[in-house]
Amino acid sequence: MKDEVTAKVNEIKTMISNKEESDKVVAAVSEIVGMFTDKLIEVSERQLKLEEKVEDVFDMLSQIEEEMIENLNNEFEAECPYCGETIPFVIPEEGEDFECPHCGNTIEMELLFDEEGCDCGACGHDHCHGCELEDDDLED
Question: pTM of the full predicted structure?
Answer without folding.
Answer: 0.40
